[in-house]
């Protein structure tokens, strides 16, 4: 069981959250100009990164807000939690699970 | 606010839609009463039907929020878990820009007051009284009953009277509000989950009717 710290509600069990996939995937500036392959890559293709990975979570049974989590996909350690309007923290600054 | 909450239906009591409505747990009233346990491990379950609930969304530091606070007579709580109360209203934090106003006053009047205070500013005031119902779980063993299915730390070092949070009890999302130190909890599940949650709680209460095993 992961213990994830919601930026608004504090530490809660993983069962209160929903996973939202990789974070920081920008919407294409001109989606109409994309060919099918580029559109498919935007919609479906995600990194399968080993190590620290920025991903989106939503506190679905709490405050129902989306936020970002930096999680180590090997150890499952939650390295950092930050709001959508905050930049991804540099790893050197990330402490343990706050 | 431990006394049963009733709605002042005013002159319309006895007629019209207010008199015709049935609470989501009316059919389990007898079962809930029969499940009550007395004594040192006592715990009792009941429904407080038809509590007025108004969902409020507004920028937390906006002018409209100030007007709404004056209309309510209470500040909007700014942190998860906090509640504020004034007269017949209790305001519960739901999110950084979202609150639930619980009240013993009639829903149309509360919603109209808040809507007038919001004015044309960005935000919303919605009467959601039918969205949830209220279960009251009270007694020395109430915390042990909830701890069977709630992931939250309900010990008095972390949770106390006057605190309310959205969480889960069993598989059911609820707004969990502790009203006093008996302890008495109010659980606000969606109406369609109320039947399941009441049966879940009745089942969880059963063991406290027997002597504690060493």
Short description:
The complex is a heterodimer of chains A (98) and B (214). With 98 residues, chain A is mostly beta strands.
Strand content of chain A: 25-35%
Helix-strand topology string of chain B: HHEEHEEEHEEHEEEH
CATH class of chain A: Alpha Beta
Number of discrete domains of chain A: 1
Strands of chain B, total number: 10
Count of domain modules of chain B: 2
The level of helicity of chain B is: 25-40%
Task: Give me the number of helical elements of chain B.
Answer: 6
> What would you say the CATH architecture of the largest domain in chain B is?
2-Layer Sandwich
Mean pLDDT of chain A: 91
Helix % of chain A is under 10%
Described by strand count, sense and barrel closure, the largest sheet of chain B is: 5 strands, antiparallel
The N- to C-terminal Cα distance of chain B equals 36 Å
Main sheet: strand order of chain A:
3-4-5-6
What's the pLDDT, averaged over the residues of chain B?
92
CA-based shape of chain B? globular
Task: Give structural notes.
The complex is a heterodimer of chains A (98) and B (214). Chain A is mainly β. In chain A, 9% of the residues lie in helices and 33% in strands. In chain A, strands 3-4-5-6 form a four-stranded antiparallel sheet, with no helix packed on it. Chain A has a two-stranded antiparallel sheet with strand order 1-2. In chain A, a hairpin with a 5-residue loop joins strand 5 and strand 6. Chain A is globular and about 45 Å long. By secondary structure, chain B is an alpha+beta fold. Chain B has two domains: 101 residues, Probable tRNA modification gtpase trme, domain 1 (Gyrase A, domain 2, 2-Layer Sandwich), CATH 3.30.1360; 76 residues, 2-Layer Sandwich (Alpha-Beta Plaits), CATH 3.30.70.1520. In chain B, strands 1-7-10-9-8 form a five-stranded antiparallel sheet. Chain B has a five-stranded antiparallel sheet with strand order 3-4-5-2-6, with helices on one face. In chain B, strand 3 and strand 4 form a beta hairpin. Chain B is globular, with a radius of gyration of 18 Å. The N terminus of chain B is likely disordered. Chain B: This is Sarcosine oxidase subunit gamma. Chain B: It comes from Streptomyces oryzae. Chain B: InterPro entries: SoxG, TrmE/GcvT-like. Chain A: It holds the Pfam family SoxD.
């Amino acid at each position: 069981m992961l213990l994830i710290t919601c930026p608004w509600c504090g530490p809660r069990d993983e069962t209160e959250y929903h996973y939202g996939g990789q974070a920081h995937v920008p919407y294409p500036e001109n989606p109409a100009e994309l060919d099918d392959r580029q559109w498919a890559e935007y919609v479906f293709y995600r990194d399968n990164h080993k190590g620290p990975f920025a991903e989106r979570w939503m506190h679905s049974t709490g405050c129902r807000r989306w936020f970002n989590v930096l999680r180590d996909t090997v150890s499952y350690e939650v390295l950092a939690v930050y709001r959508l309007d905050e930049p991804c923290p540099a790893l050197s600054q990330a402490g343990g699970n706050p | 606010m431990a006394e049963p909450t009733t709605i002042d239906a005013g002159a319309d009591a006895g007629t019209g839609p207010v008199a015709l409505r049935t609470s989501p747990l009316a059919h389990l009233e007898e079962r809930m009463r029969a499940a009550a346990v007395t004594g040192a491990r006592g715990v009792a379950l009941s429904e407080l039907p038809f509590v007025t609930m108004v969902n409020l969304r507004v920028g937390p530091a906006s002018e409209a929020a100030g007007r709404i606070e004056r209309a309510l007579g209470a500040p909007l709580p700014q942190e998860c878990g906090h509640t504020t109360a004034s007269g017949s209203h209790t305001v519960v934090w739901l999110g950084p820009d979202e609150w639930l106003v619980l009240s013993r006053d009639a829903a149309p009047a509360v919603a109209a007051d808040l809507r007038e205070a919001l004015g044309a500013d960005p935000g919303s005031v919605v009467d959601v009284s039918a969205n949830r119902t209220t279960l009251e779980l009270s007694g020395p063993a109430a915390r042990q009953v909830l701890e069977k299915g709630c992931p939250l730390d309900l010990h008095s070092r972390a949770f106390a009277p006057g605190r309310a949070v959205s969480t889960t009890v069993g598989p059911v999302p609820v707004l969990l509000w502790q009203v006093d130190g008996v302890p008495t909890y109010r659980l606000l599940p969606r109406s369609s989950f109320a039947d399941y949650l009441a049966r879940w709680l009745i089942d969880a209460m059963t063991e406290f009717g027997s002597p504690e095993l060493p």
